């Protein structure tokens, strides 16, 4: 949860003059989003989310993120739609920070996803992959497999603080992944962070997808592997194959996975575990002052990794 | 800012069944309120604020606070109106905490109050004092003058950490206030925390008053003294007499202050400074874990106190 920047009434009134979205009625800082300051903005025309991009997001990448939301939204995906300013731009400046206003999405995240949810998640993921196929911008994934060694290096000196066997486990796995990563699988724009927090439901029906600030170009099936980790494990760490089956079924009802993508699933899931293990380790060891968040436990992702290391047959996920 | 308790989708759906305020559309934790967890709740019928009362608020006092909001709201004061459950109650339980839903108020707080704002604040304060005259519940102010010694005692051992002269200043002033406090002034229900954060404006017009969780029975003119401190000092610590003049003018356009109330103003302002100085000292020395707030600087209120100590003529405020 985060509100890193305080916006005054005068700031927001002046800011809104650039838009044609009605008169200010209310502005509330919301406890959502770790990287940015988010505000629920109510105007005479409706509800919006105002986001101030803090230093954790690369300013140069904002046109990609906002452009992707605009593109997906125009393609019928229920995601936040950037509001255009009177001059046609979607990115502005407020309190010396890049800022944007996007449409508000109804719905709430589910805390205990069921099969019915994972099926819909699979479907929307595939719909996003297809819809993004003709998106014109590209952003190489900063958290792609080739960069994991570098991400690990930032924490390496202190990883022992978490678990004394962790360095060895990570180093061996990084070597395995480097040798077994399959770069010739279909590539495209992936969400890369489609956790339950980022998917809204209304009355059991998926109503929206948010938080595109990890989106990037990478292997499409890697996005599905991220979802397996995010949606198909129980609180006790056990894998729920039914949820995973529904996730695949939902995905394949929209986009068929190739035989190579399916066969790669155990490796992709190990990679997805590694990617989140590494950033969670970093976040665990480096809680930024004022972040007002409890970092996720990295060990949860070590356990995911250890589970996937036991899987030799991709059918075990389906 | 505060969200101390995480509410799941299942929790809130079950909770809403007790009310007749429409179907859940969205729930966002908001970064407002220090003592409670607050959520912006959107339903098919509109916007509401859902509050979970954390341990910092005395549960036994909730009927007073909620009853006062209901009473004031029925009397035409724009304040949060507690929503009645189907069984007629306004106080319920959610996530093992007392919980209530109140109406949402449009408006934003002003960060740089002007004369036009303080005049309206004076007016609404007097209107609340009159409207609360026939409110049937009572709550002795836990932060009344008689209790300041006790409040001070909780921080006494560590006050030197803030400023080495502070203990002597406080102790002398507490003695002065004990001898000069005028308990025979008109008494009633006061807001007791009408800071700029708790007053909303829309297009320069006061649109609502929030946060009644310090409301209590005390001297009415003490409430005005609290507002002098909260609204009539500049960021550099200097007193703005024009703002104070407008505050009085607004107040007296609705309720006449007695000669005794006016004469008592310097003492009441010293008391109002002491009351906030003491709680700010306590908060400064005891930041609760997970509170996600930067405590206010107590020294600001020491300076207010020192200013009021120089005032001998109550006319200097008007």
Gist of the model:
Chain A is of the alpha+beta class and 318 residues long.
How would you explain this protein's 3D organization?
2 copies of one chain form a homodimer. Helix content of chain A is 38%, strand content 15%. With 318 residues, chain A is of the alpha+beta class. Chain A folds into 2 domains: 95 residues, Phosphorylase Kinase, domain 1; 203 residues, Aminoglycoside phosphotransferase (APH), C-terminal lobe (Aminoglycoside 3'-phosphotransferase, Chain: A, domain 2). In chain A, strand 2 and strand 3 form a beta hairpin. The longest helix of chain A has 21 residues. The first copy, chain A, is globular. The two termini of chain A are 34 Å apart. In chain A, 45% of the residues are buried. At the A-B interface, helix 1, strand 1 and strand 7 of A face helix 1, strand 1 and strand 7 of B.
SSE arrangement:
The structure is a homodimer of 318-residue chains.
Chain A lengths: L8 H8 L7 E6 L6 E8 L2 E8 L8 H13 L17 E3 L2 E7 L11 H17 L16 H6 L12 H15 L6 E4 L8 E4 L2 E5 L6 E4 H12 L9 H12 L6 H5 L1 H21 L13 H11 L9
Antiparallel strand pairs in A: 1-2, 2-3, 3-5, 4-5, 6-9, 7-8
Helix pairs in contact in A: 3-6, 3-7, 5-9, 6-7, 6-9, 9-10
The radius of gyration computed from the alpha-carbon positions of chain A, rounded to a whole number of angstroms, is: 20 Å
Give the distance, in angstroms, between the N- and C-terminal Cα atoms of chain A. 34 Å
- Which two chains share the most extensive interface? A-B, 33 and 33 residues
Decide which structural class fits the backbone of chain A: alpha+beta
Q: Give the number of DSSP strands of chain A.
A: 9
Beta-strand content bin of chain A: 15-25%
């Amino acid at each position: 949860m985060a509100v890193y920047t305080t916006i005054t009434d005068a700031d927001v009134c002046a800011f809104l003059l650039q838009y044609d979205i009605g008169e200010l009625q209310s502005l509330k800082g919301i406890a959502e989003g770790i990287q940015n300051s988010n505000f629920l903005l109510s105007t005479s025309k409706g509800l919006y989310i105002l986001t101030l991009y803090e230093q954790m997001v690369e300013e140069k990448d904002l046109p990609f993120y906002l452009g992707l939301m605009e593109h997906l939204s125009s393609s019928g995906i229920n995601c936040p739609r950037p509001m255009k300013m009177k001059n046609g731009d979607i990115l502005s400046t407020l309190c010396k920070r890049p800022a944007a206003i996007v449409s508000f999405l109804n719905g709430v995240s589910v805390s205990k996803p069921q099969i019915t949810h994972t099926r819909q998640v699979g479907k929307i993921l595939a719909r996003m992959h297809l819809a993004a196929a003709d998106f014109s911008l590209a952003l190489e994934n900063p958290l792609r497999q080739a960069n994991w060694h570098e991400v690990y290096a930032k924490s390496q000196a202190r990883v022992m603080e978490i678990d004394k066997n962790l360095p060895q486990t990570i180093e061996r796995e990084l070597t395995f992944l480097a040798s077994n990563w399959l770069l010739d699988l279909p590539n495209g724009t992936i969400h890369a962070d489609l956790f339950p927090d980022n998917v809204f439901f209304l009355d059991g029906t998926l109503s929206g997808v948010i938080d595109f600030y990890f989106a990037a170009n990478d292997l499409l099936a890697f996005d599905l592997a991220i979802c397996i980790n995010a949606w198909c494990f129980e609180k006790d760490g056990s894998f729920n194959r039914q949820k995973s089956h529904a996730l695949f079924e939902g995905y394949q009802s929209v986009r068929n996975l190739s035989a190579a993508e399916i066969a790669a699933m155990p490796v992709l899931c190990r990679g997805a575990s590694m990617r989140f293990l590494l950033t969670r380790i970093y976040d665990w060891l480096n809680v930024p002052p004022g972040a007002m968040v409890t970092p996720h436990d990295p060990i949860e992702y070590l356990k995911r990794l250890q589970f996937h290391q036991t899987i030799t047959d991709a059918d075990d996920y389906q």
